[in-house]
Amino acid sequence: MGNLAIIYSKLGRWKEAEEMKVKVLEMRTRILGQDHLDTIHTMSNLANTYSKLGKWREAEVLEVQVLEMRTRILGQEHPDTIHSMGNLASTYTELGKWKEAEEMKVQVLEMRTRILGQDHPHTICSMGNLA
Q1: 123 with 117: CB under 8 angstroms?
Q2: This prediction's pTM
Q3: Which residue of 25, 98, 106, 129 has the smallest Cβ count within 10 Å?
Q4: 44 Cβ partners below 8 Å, 6+ apart?
Q5: Phi-psi region of 54 (alpha: psi -120 to 50; beta: other; left: phi over 0)
């Protein structure tokens, strides 16, 4: 099911991807538990699909949950946690939450610069996101 949802996403069939990812999330939550990394990854994928559909509020709700769980489980400086911060910051931008977006983008840039170095592609991307 998860693979089919990914194929729908790659084909730009976002509504079908959304429906499938909701089912996958429900199953993974029930079987693996909410704090399992595969469940959290599925939540992140569903949030991404909501973003592609312009469902920014739904994306925000999931992205906040994903960030909180990844911070608690993986730590604040784990690459997946930092990536989640960047996703949430982008959603804040789309929602017009400029102050929250800027603060989070600055935080992402600072962490990536410190951890990855200023010449790393992810750091450079973060610079562009903040500009």
Answers
A1: yes
A2: 0.92
A3: 98
A4: 62, 63, 66, 84, 87
A5: left
The encoded tokens of residue 49 equal 């699909």
Q: Are 32 and 39 in contact (CB under 8 A)?
A: yes
Q: Residues 106-125: pLDDT tens digits?
A: 999 999 999 999 999 999 99
The CB-side HSE value for 93 (13 A sphere, CA atoms) comes to 14
Q: Which residue bears the tokens 């993986």? A: 74
**Helix 121-130 vs helix 79-94: crossing angle, to nearest 10:** 20
Tell me the C-alpha distance between 31 and 48, whole Å: 22
What is the DSSP code string of the chain? -HHHHHHHHHTT-HHHHHHHHHHHHHHHHHHH-TTSHHHHHHHHHHHHHHHHTT-HHHHHHHHHHHHHHHHHHH-TTSHHHHHHHHHHHHHHHHTT-HHHHHHHHHHHHHHHHHHH-TTSHHHHHHHHHH-
**Sequence-ordered list of residues with C-beta below 8 angstroms from that of 124, at least 6 positions apart, any chain:** 118
Segment 6-50, tens digit of pLDDT: 899 999 999 999 999 999 999 999 999 999 999 999 999 999 999
